[in-house]
Design brief:
single chain, 0% strand, cell cycle, cytoskeleton
Length: 377
């Protein structure tokens, strides 16, 4: 039976909808004026354009270093800059930009060290009769499978860090422990699973860009507990609703492709689940993923649903010509962030406000499951 969210919790979470809707409204208003350049256009750009991008980088650095009296206005300017210009390649301050966009306040290292000191969640630390006694083992196995062939990633991260962060999160979930400076309802903590499939992949980009292990933990914790709490429940209702929304959005913007996938029994449960679960982090390359996450954290994690549909539309011809489209979708083509974002802007403009509302709320509102099941594009 679907869990119902308490009125107090739901009221608190729904209070964030107006901000997310305003962000979407601003995004839609910019679509007609903002140009997301293709890679060829970037290469062909003039020296003057390159100089402007360098000056823009300086402005971003000044933004994160200086006090901002008008927070909402400043955030809007930062989002617009990311949409128009993007962050520099190998951006040294991306972790701080993400912290600002996610509003993830720093934590005390002593607090984090105290949680890490608990060690792994296993039969020895929690008892062999506990249902969580295998959590540490699952974490360790998944840590060794994450981005196995990506030498660039493992040059900056270590498996030990992976294991410590994921176990620290697991202890917080098991014991109902709030992270320092984060206020959560008791029901939020009770609903969270200490570890679900995909958490290891979601942690990887944070560990890659962060300056410290506590910072990576903070960003990861914020994403799990604040931005997408329904994705980390034992039943992952939010993830499954996200999969349904991929099919609904695709049917809304491209009925022909949606019908072809349905006739060939190519279900989103099979091809979209990994991308929904990991916010596209299951698809290479890491550098392109970071650009997508810049966009996601600027305009809302819910936009991942649109990004996935965009990836389908980019290979539309191949899918329509394929007798077995699933053969093309077992592993999505490598990410092309600029093209995906550009197409996503167009999709965002075309979908209804009602559908967008469901996309926004599916991350945290249990009541949308029934509405999604009843929705007819």
């Amino acid at each position: 039976m679907q869990r119902s969210t308490s009125n107090r919790t739901l009221s608190r979470k729904l209070s964030g909808i107006s901000e997310r809707k305003q962000s979407l409204s601003n995004l839609r208003n910019r679509i007609s004026t903002v140009s997301i350049h293709d890679e060829d256009e970037r290469i062909a750009s003039s020296a003057s354009s390159k100089s402007n991008r360098m000056r823009k980088k300086d402005q971003i650095e000044k933004f994160i270093e200086s006090p901002q009296p008008l927070i909402d206005t400043s955030l809007s300017q930062l989002r617009h800059t990311i949409l128009c210009e993007g962050l520099p390649e190998s951006c040294p301050y991306r972790c701080y930009i993400w912290s600002i966009l996610l509003r993830a306040a720093p934590i005390e290292s002593e607090w984090y060290s105290g949680v890490v000191a608990r060690g792994e969640v296993n039969a020895t630390s929690i008892g062999s009769d506990s249902k969580y006694s295998k959590v540490g083992e699952k974490i360790k196995n998944d840590a060794f499978r994450t981005f196995q062939s990506n030498e660039k990633f493992w040059a900056k991260a270590s498996k030990e860090e992976f294991i410590r962060i994921l176990n620290a999160f697991a202890w917080c979930a098991i014991e109902g422990k709030e992270m320092d400076k984060v206020n959560l309802e008791e029901s939020d903590l009770n609903d969270v699973s200490p570890y679900v499939q995909g958490m290891n992949v979601l942690l990887a980009p944070f560990l890659y860009v962060s300056r410290s292990e506590p910072q990576a933990f903070t960003l990861f914790y914020n994403l799990m507990m604040i931005q997408m709490p329904r994705y980390v429940t034992p039943t992952i209702h939010g993830t499954m609703d996200g999969v349904k929304l991929v099919e609904i959005v695709l049917k809304s913007v491209d009925p022909k492709l949606a019908e072809h996938l349905m006739k060939t029994r190519t279900s989103a449960t099979l091809y979209a689940l990994p991308s929904v679960l990991t916010l596209c982090a299951c698809t290479p390359s890491l550098d392109e993923l970071l650009k997508l996450w810049d966009f996601l954290f600027s305009f809302g994690v819910h936009m991942n649903i649109i990004l996935i549909v965009s990836q389908l539309l980019l290979i539309r011809t191949e899918l329509l010509n394929a007798k077995n489209p699933m053969s093309l979708l077992r592993q999505f083509p490598e990410l092309k962030a600029d093209k995906i974002i550009k197409l996503s802007l167009s999709i965002t403009k075309s979908i209804s406000d009602e559908l967008n509302d469901l996309i926004v709320r599916h991350l945290f509102d249990d009541s949308v499951t029934e509405l999604i099941d009843e929705y007819n594009p």
